[in-house]
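Hello Y.,

Per our agreement to keep a running log of every chain we model this quarter, I'm adding this entry. I've kept the format consistent with earlier entries: sequence first, then predicted structure.
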Amino acid sequence: MIGTGVNSFKRRQWVMVAVDEAVVERLAHELRVPGLLARLLVRREIVDTGAAAAFLQPKYRDLHSPWELPNMTGAAERIAQAVREKQKITLYGDYDVDGITGTAMLWHTLRAAGVVGEARSQKPEARSSSPETSGFAEVEYYIPHRVEEGYGLNCEAIERIANGGTKLLITIDCGCSAAEPIRLARERGMDVVVSDHHEFGSEMPAANFIVHPRATDHSPFTIHHSPFNAYPNPDLCGAGVAFKLCWAVAQKLCNADRVNEVYRGLLMEFAALAALGTIADVVPLVGENRILVKYGLAQLARTRMEGLKALILAAGYGGESGRAIDCTAVGFGLAPRLNAAGRMGHAREAVELLTTATGQRATEIANWLEEQNKDRQKTERKMVEVATAEIETRNWKLETGNSGGGDSVIVVSHPSFHVGVVGIVASRIAELYHRPTFVLSTNDGEAHGSARSVRGFELHAAIEHARDLLISGGGHAMAGGVKMAAENVEAFRERLLTYGDEKLTEDLRTPCLELDGVIGLEDCVVEVMEAMESLAPFGRGNPRPQFLLENAKLTAPPRRVGATGTHLQLTICQGKRAGRCIAFKMGAIEPELVVGMELNLVVEPKVAYWNGRSSVDLVVVDLARADGEALGNRL
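Predicted structure for the entry above:
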């Protein structure tokens, strides 16, 4: 422990994790990389030379075979059968980025069978890898309304789908906890293929096949609790599962391991969609997920999908903008716009954008998503204000909240809260107070809400602990959703407080920054930092490296920057070296910083490119006075 939550600007404990210096030296020598990069690999527990080389240069061919996913064979065969027999297929997708992109992938896969099948029927000499079908498969998609229907399958929707003549129902990013709706679907004569990655409910759905990275093969009613015979990537997101399902279906339709040119092109495009879902769903960016995101980001920059190109341009990327499409661009630019459709209205327009929209229609939808996202941002800001005010009235203070005090679990509710935005607000509150947080909208006698967690506290287990108070609820370790009678909100809060007091230890209540080492301004050279960038893409499970920069002296008055002076620019020196830093959302600290003061900074170095030149930017994550005195102004 090298810093304190009391004295740093963000009240975080600064933790330096020791590494074996001999291993660092060996890895640097064997890989012929800078010692700093070798240290970062060891910090990620990558100490084998071969594994390190594979991590630095992930290969598309190293993706796991889709057939390794449990129940994939039966699922792909049933879908291919429906295409060949021209049975009506309905894709039932979730309304978030994971579900939207997965639905779009499956729609393109099934429709492409008709395109290539027609060509094959006119060319008898075509290779056997062409799909055994002619004419388009009848494919529809159904996306539930977030506010009116809530998450996942519901019986009313199943009735409408069945009445429409659907013979095969395929779920995307939902379904593994929908026992009753799937039972109804089977009773109404539909076969059901579930593709999902969420936690299973107390009753397993009686689907024909459940394609899920943590299910067992041949039996959808058992979940793996050991690594034996399990899929190698248990953290595959919903879009990742859909990507693998499309891959397998394409092979079945082509009757070959090597798919035809049409499907090869589609699968490359699908890498971009899978990357969107993987980043947006905040799953660990290691192993197979890392490969999908690395190649998917590259594909985003050159996509031929008109709707996706329109989205990228509307968000200010691509074209002449010069802005790179990386994980930050997806997480804070593209994904929120796709999500905004389902949050503020209906997500079907977002699916249309990624399926049938071209030309002017694609531009119209992309611009509409831009406006929806702006509305979402305004709504979010107001909700955060209301939520924090309610929390503070419960004697919850930032000073105690981030140093171990306050409620173990936060449950905040209000009738003005927009159901479509509660998840984002829960994330903001959980980050601000470092507590598992439930944000609930109370209207018409019911409370609907979302939850976000902190390290070490599994939300799905907490939700199960209060199952008797809920109408519905579920999720996974870090995110979830609940629905209950409004009269149960206080009982729900008390139940979770008791549960949180037991499960959330003092260590888990204290937020921390795990630092990757100590760095000096002399280390911040382009060549070394470019080598560090080979660790990208960065995200959960592979965070952007953070270093301690000690005893940096302020050599000029801090300057508030940004339209409203929210950010802070610092000019520093360390020995004979000088540099500049940007501290986002730390403008309030400006009056306390004076020329000559020495600071300890937690920084993220990044390589910036402008007009053909490169330089190293230092982004300040947290800061503290080097003399140990506390900073007065706070977040």
